[in-house]
Amino acid sequence: MRYRHDFEGVTEKIRSIGPVRWHQFDTVLPAYWEAAGATGGRGSYVSANPRISVFFDDVSSIRVLEGTASRPLPRAIFVPAGMALQTMFTRPLVFSHLDVHMDAGWAVDVLSGAMSRAAALRLLAQPAERHDTGPLEVIARLLVDELDAASCPDLYAQSLAGSLVAAILDIGAEGQEARRARLTAAQMRKVCQRFDAGGGRGLPVAHLAAAVNLSESWFSQVFKNTTGMTPHQWQRARRIEHARALLSDTSLGVADVADRLGFSDQAHLTRTFRQVVGETPAAWRRRRG
User: Fold this and answer.
1) Helix axes 231-249 and 216-227, enclosed angle (nearest 10)
2) Residue where a domain terminates, one of 151, 176, 201
């Protein structure tokens, strides 16, 4: 498993009033608590992993302690790895909440479709909170239901956890980076070289991303910003360029060209060629001849 639980909590005058419902998935550990705190109750918590807590009740009577100051506990809070959280009850309270402990690398992967890994790391190093939970609570309750039913594949629960991450973090400023980011000329040369080394055959996007040491999702975003095309569209256009060169400069038949460039068959090349060029390979070759 990627996630390794490393959490420490010390409480005083706070008690669980029902069994803790939890499940450890590959990348996250959600746990649902029902608890009661007395006036003056205190809690001190720290984890080696980032975590989210969503409270299903008004918890404004619980104060977050920050040195000599305090403030009401938000209904939803993201706590970065290694950040201590201390709370105190100002009156008796019965409440329930969902904690989602997560693997830090997984959280970076969740965010890297909208920003660079460096930006994701910056975002995950900062606490975040929401007083109006809105859709957060809906997602959290779906995850609680899954703790009991376990009716779906693990990917479902992990996807819900990923949605909580995206909903609670303020990705607006960092997300602007995704809309502005471009590949450098040197990076584009490396991508072209990697593609050309394959002889005009289509490559998995992950292989192109690896040429410039970027995650597949972030590469796809900045590649489209740079070229105006998705990696798949760009490769299709480049492959048809190779096909036109072979049809023009060699005597290879259309079926042979298709085989050399990795198309499944002649019909596949013909269909793709027509989509890009507007006519079949045979018609294009005749017109040029």
Assistant:
1) 60
2) 176
- The pTM score is 0.69
Do residues 11 and 42 touch, judged by C-beta distance below 8 A? Answer: yes
Average pLDDT over every residue of 113-138: 88
- Are 90 and 200 contained in the same domain? no
What is the β-pairing status of strands 62-66 and 85-89? antiparallel
Number of structural domains in the chain: 2
Looking at the structure, tell me whether residues 81 and 112 fall in a common domain: yes
For residue 30, give every residue at least 6 positions away whose Cβ sits within 8 Å of its Cβ, in sequence order, or none.
Answer: 22, 23, 98, 99, 100, 101, 143, 144, 147, 157, 161
Domain that holds residue 148: 7-176
Stronger pLDDT, 144 or 117, i.e. the higher one: 144
Q: How many CB atoms lie within 10 A of CB 10?
A: 11
- Is there a domain that residue 2 lies in? no
What are the pLDDT digits (tens) for 23-34? 999 999 999 999
Cα–Cα distance for residue pair 229/222, rounded to 1 Å:
10
Please check whether residue 110 is in contact with residue 70, taking contact to mean a CB–CB distance below 8 angstroms: no
State how far the Cα of 213 lies from the Cα of 207, in Å rounded to an integer. 10
Q: Please give the structure tokens belonging to residue 264.
A: 């499944």
Q: What share of the chain has pLDDT > 90, as a percent?
A: 78
Whether residue 90 contacts residue 39, with contact meaning beta carbons closer than 8 Å, is answered with yes
Query: Do 103 and 221 have their domain in common?
Result: no
Can you say whether the dihedral through the CA atoms of 229, 235, 238, 240 is positive or negative? negative
